[in-house]
Write a structure and sequence with these properties.
By secondary structure, this protein is of the alpha+beta class. It has a single domain, classed as Protein Transport Mog1p, Chain A. Helices cover 26% and strands 30% of the residues. Strand 6 and strand 7 form a beta hairpin. The relative contact order is 0.16.
Length: 201
Amino acid sequence: MPLRFCLVFFCLLLTVLWACNSDYTVGKKKGYFKIDFPEKKYVLFDKPGYPYTFEYPVYAQVVKDSTFFDDKAEDWWINIDIPHFNGRIHVSYKPVNPKNHIDSLIRDGFKMAYKQHVNIATGIKDSLMITPNGISGIYFRLSGNTATANQFFLTDSTRHFLRGALYFDATPNEDSLGIVNDFLKQDLYHLINTLRWKNGK
């Protein structure tokens, strides 16, 4: 048997034996970064001139919404920015009056939840709420890769109408945002349950 053939055979044999004993890896499962959640603590939003007060988390910042300027109501629109999660709770307010009839405001509240997300959401559930302060409203929970999975509106039906929605500055992904949505949903509930109108009702 020629020496060259023996060397080739020996090299092939070593390669096979080495391959049989080498470690192998399985493709990694899809995962997401670990998220550290801050402690739940709240402060009161009670700015002069605003027709409402509520409590919001200490890890958030309230800033005036400068998106719309067409009437006086937008003076009371704010954003509650949550930098730790690239999140934002958009809060809009309209006084109930002949120009802003309660039926139209409620219809718009449903439209914002359903019409804009009907082609994206895999499910939309609305629930009636009555807060400890006697304020009623509707909470919307949207499933699927929607821009906002949590929306609500609150009203006394005669003077005040407030709407809120939680958004993220990220590509909508129900799986990756689910745990953060659940964490911030508690803050939405706290805001809702501590809301008061400035007229004392």
